[in-house]
From TrEMBL:
Record protein name field: Tautomerase
Pfam families in UniProt: Tautomerase
Keyword Isomerase: yes
Domain 4-oxalocrotonate tautomerase-like: 2-64
Enzyme class: isomerase
Gene3D superfamilies: Macrophage Migration Inhibitory Factor
EC identifiers of the protein: 5.3.2.-
Protein source organism: Shouchella clausii
Length: 69
């Protein structure tokens, strides 16, 4: 049973329900086509992380976005 965890920053209100479904279907299809995994047993979890709780290069993503990075 494949388990895929996608982590994205919650920007501009976060992902829409439709965007999440597109990710779930896309990842599931990719595993089915590439690795011959059963879509019925593929788990996809999407975690939306507040930009203050996500760091890169010793900076919070919220600050990096404000700085145009």
């Amino acid at each position: 049973m494949p388990y895929v965890n996608i982590k994205v920053t919650k920007e501009n209100g976060g992902l829409t329900k439709e965007e999440k479904l597109t990710l779930i279907k896309g990842v599931t299809n990719l595993l089915a086509e590439t690795l011959n995994k059963n879509p019925a047993s593929t788990v996809v979890v999407i975690d939306e992380i507040d930009m203050d709780n996500y760091g890169l290069g010793a900076e919070q993503i919220s600050d990096r976005r404000k700085a145009g990075k």
